[in-house]
Amino acid sequence: MPFDPPFRLAADHPSVSLDLHDPRFFTDPWASYAALHAQAPRFFWEEEGKWFFASYADVNALLRDRRFGRQILHVASRQELGLPEPQPHLADFDRIESFSLLELEPPAHTRLRTLVNRAFVSRQIDRLTPRITALSHALIDGFADKGETELLTSYAEVIPVTIIAEMLGVPQEAAPRLLDWSHRMVRMYMARPTRETEDDANQASADFGAYLADIIDWKRKNPADDLLTQMITADRDGQTLSEEELISTAALLLNAGHEATVHQIGNAVALILSQGADPAALFADDRATTLTVEECLRRAAPLHLFQRIALEDVTLDGGITIKRGERIGLLLGAANVDPTRFTDPMAFRPTRDEGANLSFGAGIHFCIGAPLARLELKISLPILFQHLPNLRLKAMPEVKDSFHFHGLERVELVW
Ligand code: HEM
Protein backbone atom coordinates (compact mmCIF):
# COMPACT_ATOMS: atom_id res chain seq x y z
CA MET A 1 0.00 0.00 0.00
CA PRO A 2 1.47 3.45 -0.84
CA PHE A 3 2.38 5.58 2.17
CA ASP A 4 -0.35 8.03 3.10
CA PRO A 5 1.57 10.91 4.75
CA PRO A 6 0.04 12.12 8.01
CA PHE A 7 0.48 15.74 6.93
CA ARG A 8 -1.39 18.12 4.70
CA LEU A 9 0.61 20.29 2.34
CA ALA A 10 -0.97 23.63 1.37
CA ALA A 11 -1.45 24.00 -2.36
CA ASP A 12 0.06 27.45 -2.85
CA HIS A 13 2.78 27.62 -0.20
CA PRO A 14 5.18 25.15 1.47
CA SER A 15 3.11 25.08 4.60
CA VAL A 16 2.43 21.81 6.33
CA SER A 17 -0.20 20.78 8.86
CA LEU A 18 1.15 17.89 10.92
CA ASP A 19 0.14 16.57 14.33
CA LEU A 20 3.20 15.54 16.36
CA HIS A 21 1.12 13.01 18.24
CA ASP A 22 -0.28 11.27 15.17
CA PRO A 23 1.02 7.68 15.53
CA ARG A 24 1.57 7.54 11.76
CA PHE A 25 4.12 10.30 12.29
CA PHE A 26 5.91 9.53 15.54
CA THR A 27 6.09 5.74 15.11
CA ASP A 28 7.91 6.09 11.79
CA PRO A 29 8.93 9.71 11.20
CA TRP A 30 11.28 8.57 8.41
CA ALA A 31 8.35 7.70 6.15
CA SER A 32 7.10 11.28 6.56
CA TYR A 33 10.61 12.63 6.03
CA ALA A 34 10.81 10.78 2.71
CA ALA A 35 7.55 12.43 1.62
CA LEU A 36 8.78 15.83 2.85
CA HIS A 37 12.07 15.46 0.96
CA ALA A 38 10.04 14.85 -2.19
CA GLN A 39 7.49 17.62 -1.65
CA ALA A 40 8.67 20.28 0.81
CA PRO A 41 12.20 20.00 2.27
CA ARG A 42 11.69 23.52 3.66
CA PHE A 43 8.24 24.02 5.12
CA PHE A 44 6.31 26.21 7.50
CA TRP A 45 4.88 23.89 10.16
CA GLU A 46 1.49 25.40 10.91
CA GLU A 47 0.98 23.86 14.37
CA GLU A 48 4.53 24.81 15.48
CA GLY A 49 4.36 28.28 13.88
CA LYS A 50 7.85 28.28 12.39
CA TRP A 51 10.00 27.18 9.48
CA PHE A 52 11.47 23.69 9.46
CA PHE A 53 14.35 22.35 7.40
CA ALA A 54 14.74 18.72 6.36
CA SER A 55 17.54 18.61 3.79
CA TYR A 56 21.07 17.61 4.79
CA ALA A 57 22.54 20.72 3.19
CA ASP A 58 20.18 23.08 5.05
CA VAL A 59 20.42 21.38 8.45
CA ASN A 60 24.21 21.13 8.23
CA ALA A 61 24.59 24.76 7.12
CA LEU A 62 22.10 26.22 9.61
CA LEU A 63 23.63 24.37 12.58
CA ARG A 64 26.92 26.09 11.68
CA ASP A 65 25.43 29.48 10.79
CA ARG A 66 26.50 32.03 13.41
CA ARG A 67 23.54 34.26 12.54
CA PHE A 68 21.54 31.71 14.55
CA GLY A 69 22.06 30.67 18.16
CA ARG A 70 20.55 28.39 20.77
CA GLN A 71 20.06 31.55 22.82
CA ILE A 72 19.39 35.20 22.08
CA LEU A 73 19.25 36.78 25.52
CA HIS A 74 23.01 37.46 25.36
CA VAL A 75 22.38 40.01 22.60
CA ALA A 76 18.81 41.20 23.22
CA SER A 77 16.51 41.81 26.16
CA ARG A 78 13.17 40.11 26.77
CA GLN A 79 11.37 43.47 26.45
CA GLU A 80 13.00 44.18 23.11
CA LEU A 81 11.90 40.78 21.80
CA GLY A 82 8.46 40.93 23.40
CA LEU A 83 9.16 37.73 25.34
CA PRO A 84 7.25 36.96 28.54
CA GLU A 85 9.10 37.28 31.87
CA PRO A 86 10.49 34.03 33.34
CA GLN A 87 7.84 32.08 35.20
CA PRO A 88 8.37 31.71 38.96
CA HIS A 89 7.21 28.09 38.97
CA LEU A 90 10.14 27.25 36.66
CA ALA A 91 12.82 29.14 38.60
CA ASP A 92 14.89 26.08 39.58
CA PHE A 93 14.68 24.55 36.12
CA ASP A 94 15.65 27.87 34.49
CA ARG A 95 18.59 28.33 36.87
CA ILE A 96 20.14 25.01 35.84
CA GLU A 97 19.42 25.70 32.15
CA SER A 98 20.79 29.23 32.15
CA PHE A 99 24.35 28.11 32.95
CA SER A 100 24.20 25.03 30.75
CA LEU A 101 26.75 24.72 27.97
CA LEU A 102 23.98 23.70 25.62
CA GLU A 103 22.11 26.95 26.23
CA LEU A 104 25.08 29.35 26.04
CA GLU A 105 26.57 31.20 23.10
CA PRO A 106 30.10 32.63 22.71
CA PRO A 107 32.04 33.93 24.51
CA ALA A 108 30.53 32.18 27.57
CA HIS A 109 30.05 28.96 25.60
CA THR A 110 33.64 28.91 24.33
CA ARG A 111 35.11 29.33 27.80
CA LEU A 112 32.95 26.64 29.40
CA ARG A 113 33.32 24.19 26.52
CA THR A 114 37.12 24.51 26.58
CA LEU A 115 37.14 23.69 30.30
CA VAL A 116 34.93 20.61 29.92
CA ASN A 117 36.23 19.38 26.56
CA ARG A 118 39.57 18.16 27.86
CA ALA A 119 37.86 15.22 29.53
CA PHE A 120 35.92 14.24 26.42
CA VAL A 121 38.60 14.05 23.75
CA SER A 122 38.94 10.55 22.25
CA ARG A 123 42.31 9.97 23.92
CA GLN A 124 40.73 10.31 27.37
CA ILE A 125 37.56 8.47 26.45
CA ASP A 126 39.42 5.45 25.01
CA ARG A 127 40.75 4.76 28.50
CA LEU A 128 37.21 3.74 29.49
CA THR A 129 37.26 0.72 27.13
CA PRO A 130 38.06 -1.93 29.77
CA ARG A 131 35.44 -0.58 32.17
CA ILE A 132 32.62 -0.43 29.56
CA THR A 133 33.59 -3.92 28.36
CA ALA A 134 33.55 -5.40 31.87
CA LEU A 135 30.24 -3.72 32.71
CA SER A 136 28.58 -4.97 29.49
CA HIS A 137 29.69 -8.56 30.21
CA ALA A 138 28.60 -8.37 33.86
CA LEU A 139 25.12 -7.10 32.95
CA ILE A 140 24.58 -9.83 30.36
CA ASP A 141 25.84 -12.48 32.80
CA GLY A 142 23.05 -11.29 35.10
CA PHE A 143 20.26 -12.18 32.66
CA ALA A 144 21.76 -14.63 30.12
CA ASP A 145 20.24 -17.70 31.83
CA LYS A 146 16.73 -16.29 31.84
CA GLY A 147 16.12 -16.64 28.10
CA GLU A 148 14.50 -13.20 27.95
CA THR A 149 15.01 -9.61 29.05
CA GLU A 150 13.72 -6.08 28.63
CA LEU A 151 16.83 -4.53 27.13
CA LEU A 152 16.32 -0.89 28.08
CA THR A 153 16.16 -1.44 31.84
CA SER A 154 18.53 -4.40 32.09
CA TYR A 155 21.28 -3.12 29.78
CA ALA A 156 20.80 0.05 27.72
CA GLU A 157 19.96 2.27 30.68
CA VAL A 158 22.61 0.96 33.05
CA ILE A 159 25.76 1.36 30.93
CA PRO A 160 25.61 5.10 30.09
CA VAL A 161 24.46 6.27 33.53
CA THR A 162 27.07 4.14 35.32
CA ILE A 163 29.89 5.37 33.09
CA ILE A 164 29.03 9.07 33.21
CA ALA A 165 28.48 8.94 37.00
CA GLU A 166 31.87 7.23 37.44
CA MET A 167 33.56 9.76 35.14
CA LEU A 168 32.18 12.64 37.14
CA GLY A 169 32.89 10.94 40.45
CA VAL A 170 29.26 10.82 41.59
CA PRO A 171 28.51 7.83 43.88
CA GLN A 172 27.04 4.78 42.13
CA GLU A 173 24.22 4.45 44.67
CA ALA A 174 22.82 7.69 43.25
CA ALA A 175 22.21 6.17 39.79
CA PRO A 176 18.46 5.49 40.29
CA ARG A 177 17.91 9.02 41.59
CA LEU A 178 19.94 10.50 38.72
CA LEU A 179 17.80 8.61 36.23
CA ASP A 180 14.62 9.80 37.90
CA TRP A 181 15.66 13.48 38.01
CA SER A 182 16.92 13.32 34.47
CA HIS A 183 13.75 11.73 33.03
CA ARG A 184 11.62 14.36 34.77
CA MET A 185 13.75 17.27 33.52
CA VAL A 186 14.03 15.96 29.96
CA ARG A 187 10.22 15.90 29.64
CA MET A 188 10.44 19.70 29.38
CA TYR A 189 11.96 19.37 25.90
CA MET A 190 8.86 17.76 24.50
CA ALA A 191 6.41 19.88 22.58
CA ARG A 192 4.17 22.00 24.82
CA PRO A 193 4.73 20.50 28.29
CA THR A 194 1.77 20.60 30.69
CA ARG A 195 1.79 22.59 33.95
CA GLU A 196 2.12 19.31 35.84
CA THR A 197 5.22 18.37 33.80
CA GLU A 198 6.67 21.84 34.42
CA ASP A 199 6.12 21.67 38.19
CA ASP A 200 7.60 18.21 38.31
CA ALA A 201 10.64 19.20 36.21
CA ASN A 202 11.18 22.20 38.47
CA GLN A 203 11.08 20.04 41.60
CA ALA A 204 13.48 17.55 40.00
CA SER A 205 15.83 20.44 39.11
CA ALA A 206 15.73 21.76 42.69
CA ASP A 207 16.50 18.32 44.16
CA PHE A 208 19.16 17.54 41.54
CA GLY A 209 20.80 20.95 42.05
CA ALA A 210 20.84 20.56 45.86
CA TYR A 211 22.32 17.07 45.54
CA LEU A 212 25.06 18.28 43.17
CA ALA A 213 25.86 21.27 45.42
CA ASP A 214 26.49 18.83 48.30
CA ILE A 215 28.70 16.59 46.16
CA ILE A 216 30.67 19.58 44.86
CA ASP A 217 31.17 20.80 48.41
CA TRP A 218 32.42 17.34 49.40
CA LYS A 219 34.75 17.15 46.38
CA ARG A 220 36.29 20.51 47.25
CA LYS A 221 37.41 18.97 50.53
CA ASN A 222 38.12 15.51 49.08
CA PRO A 223 39.57 15.99 45.61
CA ALA A 224 39.80 12.81 43.55
CA ASP A 225 40.83 11.67 40.07
CA ASP A 226 37.50 12.49 38.44
CA LEU A 227 35.86 15.02 36.15
CA LEU A 228 34.05 16.93 38.87
CA THR A 229 37.32 17.53 40.71
CA GLN A 230 38.93 18.60 37.42
CA MET A 231 36.12 21.07 36.82
CA ILE A 232 36.41 22.45 40.37
CA THR A 233 40.17 22.90 40.14
CA ALA A 234 41.54 25.92 38.27
CA ASP A 235 43.07 25.09 34.92
CA ARG A 236 46.39 26.28 33.56
CA ASP A 237 45.17 29.79 32.80
CA GLY A 238 43.52 30.13 36.18
CA GLN A 239 40.06 29.69 34.64
CA THR A 240 37.47 28.08 36.88
CA LEU A 241 33.76 27.35 36.77
CA SER A 242 31.48 29.24 39.15
CA GLU A 243 29.34 27.20 41.57
CA GLU A 244 26.30 27.65 39.30
CA GLU A 245 28.25 26.65 36.20
CA LEU A 246 29.54 23.56 38.01
CA ILE A 247 26.03 22.47 38.99
CA SER A 248 24.59 23.14 35.52
CA THR A 249 27.45 21.42 33.71
CA ALA A 250 27.36 18.36 35.98
CA ALA A 251 23.57 18.13 35.52
CA LEU A 252 23.87 18.51 31.74
CA LEU A 253 26.57 15.86 31.49
CA LEU A 254 24.60 13.44 33.66
CA ASN A 255 21.40 14.03 31.66
CA ALA A 256 22.85 14.26 28.16
CA GLY A 257 25.34 11.55 29.11
CA HIS A 258 22.73 8.87 29.14
CA GLU A 259 19.29 9.87 27.78
CA ALA A 260 20.24 9.73 24.10
CA THR A 261 22.61 6.78 24.39
CA VAL A 262 19.97 4.62 26.13
CA HIS A 263 17.59 5.16 23.24
CA GLN A 264 20.31 4.67 20.66
CA ILE A 265 21.24 1.26 22.10
CA GLY A 266 17.54 0.28 22.01
CA ASN A 267 16.95 1.71 18.52
CA ALA A 268 20.07 0.01 17.14
CA VAL A 269 19.21 -3.43 18.55
CA ALA A 270 15.61 -3.18 17.30
CA LEU A 271 16.80 -2.01 13.87
CA ILE A 272 19.36 -4.80 13.48
CA LEU A 273 16.90 -7.50 14.60
CA SER A 274 13.96 -6.22 12.56
CA GLN A 275 16.16 -6.09 9.44
CA GLY A 276 17.31 -9.66 9.93
CA ALA A 277 20.92 -8.53 9.54
CA ASP A 278 23.68 -11.01 10.44
CA PRO A 279 25.35 -9.77 13.65
CA ALA A 280 28.48 -11.82 12.94
CA ALA A 281 29.07 -9.75 9.79
CA LEU A 282 27.96 -6.46 11.36
CA PHE A 283 30.55 -6.75 14.10
CA ALA A 284 33.19 -8.82 12.28
CA ASP A 285 36.03 -6.40 13.11
CA ASP A 286 36.66 -2.87 14.29
CA ARG A 287 35.93 -1.25 10.93
CA ALA A 288 32.71 -3.22 10.39
CA THR A 289 31.60 -2.30 13.92
CA THR A 290 32.33 1.40 13.35
CA LEU A 291 30.32 1.42 10.11
CA THR A 292 27.43 -0.51 11.71
CA VAL A 293 27.28 1.92 14.64
CA GLU A 294 27.27 4.90 12.25
CA GLU A 295 24.57 3.36 10.06
CA CYS A 296 22.40 2.76 13.15
CA LEU A 297 22.98 6.39 14.21
CA ARG A 298 22.00 7.57 10.73
CA ARG A 299 18.95 5.38 10.24
CA ALA A 300 17.60 5.25 13.81
CA ALA A 301 18.85 8.44 15.50
CA PRO A 302 17.52 9.11 19.01
CA LEU A 303 17.26 12.92 18.69
CA HIS A 304 15.44 14.27 15.67
CA LEU A 305 14.96 17.97 16.21
CA PHE A 306 16.97 20.91 17.51
CA GLN A 307 15.98 24.56 17.30
CA ARG A 308 17.87 27.75 16.66
CA ILE A 309 16.92 31.41 17.16
CA ALA A 310 17.79 34.07 14.58
CA LEU A 311 20.18 36.59 16.16
CA GLU A 312 19.52 39.03 13.28
CA ASP A 313 17.09 39.23 10.36
CA VAL A 314 18.17 36.53 7.92
CA THR A 315 17.06 36.01 4.32
CA LEU A 316 17.99 32.57 3.09
CA ASP A 317 18.67 31.77 -0.54
CA GLY A 318 15.30 31.02 -2.04
CA GLY A 319 13.81 34.01 -0.26
CA ILE A 320 12.66 32.71 3.14
CA THR A 321 13.06 35.48 5.70
CA ILE A 322 13.54 34.70 9.38
CA LYS A 323 13.18 37.72 11.64
CA ARG A 324 15.48 38.38 14.59
CA GLY A 325 14.17 36.43 17.60
CA GLU A 326 12.24 33.89 15.50
CA ARG A 327 12.95 30.19 15.89
CA ILE A 328 13.64 27.61 13.22
CA GLY A 329 13.46 23.80 13.47
CA LEU A 330 16.30 21.65 12.18
CA LEU A 331 15.28 18.05 11.48
CA LEU A 332 18.45 16.05 12.10
CA GLY A 333 16.58 12.76 11.66
CA ALA A 334 15.31 13.89 8.26
CA ALA A 335 18.72 15.18 7.11
CA ASN A 336 20.10 11.68 7.73
CA VAL A 337 17.76 10.23 5.10
CA ASP A 338 18.09 12.96 2.49
CA PRO A 339 18.19 11.19 -0.91
CA THR A 340 20.43 13.92 -2.33
CA ARG A 341 23.06 13.06 0.29
CA PHE A 342 22.74 9.28 0.92
CA THR A 343 22.17 6.58 -1.70
CA ASP A 344 18.89 4.70 -1.20
CA PRO A 345 18.65 6.46 2.18
CA MET A 346 15.85 4.40 3.75
CA ALA A 347 17.82 1.17 3.35
CA PHE A 348 19.81 -0.12 6.32
CA ARG A 349 23.22 -0.74 4.78
CA PRO A 350 25.78 -1.44 7.47
CA THR A 351 28.66 -1.30 4.99
CA ARG A 352 27.63 2.15 3.81
CA ASP A 353 30.58 4.54 3.94
CA GLU A 354 29.13 7.83 2.74
CA GLY A 355 30.42 10.32 5.28
CA ALA A 356 29.07 11.91 8.41
CA ASN A 357 25.46 11.71 9.54
CA LEU A 358 24.08 14.61 11.59
CA SER A 359 22.95 12.66 14.65
CA PHE A 360 25.48 14.46 16.87
CA GLY A 361 24.76 17.86 15.32
CA ALA A 362 27.35 20.20 13.77
CA GLY A 363 29.05 23.52 14.53
CA ILE A 364 29.91 24.91 17.95
CA HIS A 365 27.31 22.82 19.84
CA PHE A 366 28.41 19.54 18.21
CA CYS A 367 27.89 16.85 20.82
CA ILE A 368 30.76 16.92 23.28
CA GLY A 369 29.91 13.36 24.30
CA ALA A 370 30.08 11.89 20.78
CA PRO A 371 33.37 10.00 21.39
CA LEU A 372 31.91 8.54 24.59
CA ALA A 373 28.55 7.61 23.03
CA ARG A 374 30.29 6.01 20.04
CA LEU A 375 32.59 4.00 22.31
CA GLU A 376 29.66 2.80 24.44
CA LEU A 377 27.83 1.70 21.28
CA LYS A 378 30.91 0.09 19.73
CA ILE A 379 31.44 -2.00 22.85
CA SER A 380 27.94 -2.74 24.15
CA LEU A 381 26.35 -3.79 20.83
CA PRO A 382 28.83 -6.48 19.69
CA ILE A 383 29.10 -7.93 23.21
CA LEU A 384 25.32 -8.30 23.39
CA PHE A 385 25.07 -10.08 20.03
CA GLN A 386 28.15 -12.25 20.68
CA HIS A 387 26.88 -13.42 24.08
CA LEU A 388 23.36 -14.12 22.85
CA PRO A 389 23.69 -15.32 19.23
CA ASN A 390 20.01 -16.35 18.97
CA LEU A 391 18.66 -12.97 19.99
CA ARG A 392 15.17 -12.17 18.68
CA LEU A 393 12.54 -9.51 19.27
CA LYS A 394 9.67 -10.93 21.32
CA ALA A 395 7.35 -8.34 19.76
CA MET A 396 7.80 -5.26 17.62
CA PRO A 397 8.66 -2.51 20.14
CA GLU A 398 6.28 0.42 20.58
CA VAL A 399 7.67 3.87 19.90
CA LYS A 400 7.33 6.56 22.58
CA ASP A 401 4.95 9.38 21.74
CA SER A 402 7.68 11.94 22.31
CA PHE A 403 8.96 13.36 19.05
CA HIS A 404 11.73 14.85 19.05
CA PHE A 405 13.24 11.98 21.08
CA HIS A 406 12.92 8.84 19.05
CA GLY A 407 12.94 6.07 21.62
CA LEU A 408 11.18 2.80 22.27
CA GLU A 409 8.85 2.07 25.19
CA ARG A 410 10.35 -1.37 25.79
CA VAL A 411 12.63 -3.73 23.88
CA GLU A 412 11.58 -7.28 24.87
CA LEU A 413 14.16 -9.81 23.71
CA VAL A 414 14.21 -13.62 23.74
CA TRP A 415 16.93 -16.13 22.81
C1 HEM B 1 23.87 8.59 20.93
C2 HEM B 1 24.06 9.46 21.87
C3 HEM B 1 24.01 10.95 21.72
C4 HEM B 1 23.43 11.72 20.73
C5 HEM B 1 22.67 11.25 19.49
C6 HEM B 1 23.70 13.10 21.06
C7 HEM B 1 23.31 14.19 20.28
C8 HEM B 1 23.63 15.51 20.54
C9 HEM B 1 23.32 16.62 19.66
C10 HEM B 1 22.58 16.52 18.33
C11 HEM B 1 23.82 17.74 20.23
C12 HEM B 1 23.78 19.17 19.64
C13 HEM B 1 22.55 19.94 20.02
C14 HEM B 1 22.44 21.26 19.27
O1 HEM B 1 23.18 21.51 18.33
O2 HEM B 1 21.55 22.07 19.61
C15 HEM B 1 24.44 17.36 21.48
C16 HEM B 1 25.04 18.24 22.36
C17 HEM B 1 25.59 17.84 23.55
N1 HEM B 1 25.75 16.54 24.01
FE1 HEM B 1 25.16 14.86 23.09
N2 HEM B 1 24.40 13.16 22.23
C18 HEM B 1 24.63 11.88 22.66
C19 HEM B 1 25.36 11.48 23.77
C20 HEM B 1 25.96 12.35 24.64
C21 HEM B 1 26.79 11.96 25.75
C22 HEM B 1 27.17 10.54 26.10
C23 HEM B 1 27.15 13.12 26.40
C24 HEM B 1 27.99 13.38 27.61
C25 HEM B 1 28.71 12.66 28.26
C26 HEM B 1 26.58 14.21 25.67
C27 HEM B 1 26.73 15.53 26.01
C28 HEM B 1 26.37 16.59 25.23
C29 HEM B 1 26.62 17.98 25.59
C30 HEM B 1 27.29 18.48 26.87
C31 HEM B 1 26.14 18.77 24.53
C32 HEM B 1 26.18 20.28 24.42
C33 HEM B 1 27.41 20.71 23.68
C34 HEM B 1 27.45 22.20 23.45
O3 HEM B 1 26.43 22.86 23.51
O4 HEM B 1 28.56 22.70 23.19
N3 HEM B 1 25.87 13.71 24.60
N4 HEM B 1 24.31 15.99 21.64
TrEMBL record:
Keywords: Heme, Iron, Metal-binding, Monooxygenase, Oxidoreductase. CDD domains: CYP164-like (cd20625). It comes from the Bacteria. Pfam families: p450 (PF00067). Its cofactor is heme. InterPro entries: Cyt_P450, Cyt_P450_B, Cyt_P450_CS, Cyt_P450_sf. GO terms for molecular function: heme binding; iron ion binding; monooxygenase activity; oxidoreductase activity, acting on paired donors, with incorporation or reduction of molecular oxygen. Cytochromes P450 are a group of heme-thiolate monooxygenases. They oxidize a variety of structurally unrelated compounds, including steroids, fatty acids, and xenobiotics. Belongs to the cytochrome P450 family. This is Cytochrome. It comes from Xaviernesmea rhizosphaerae.
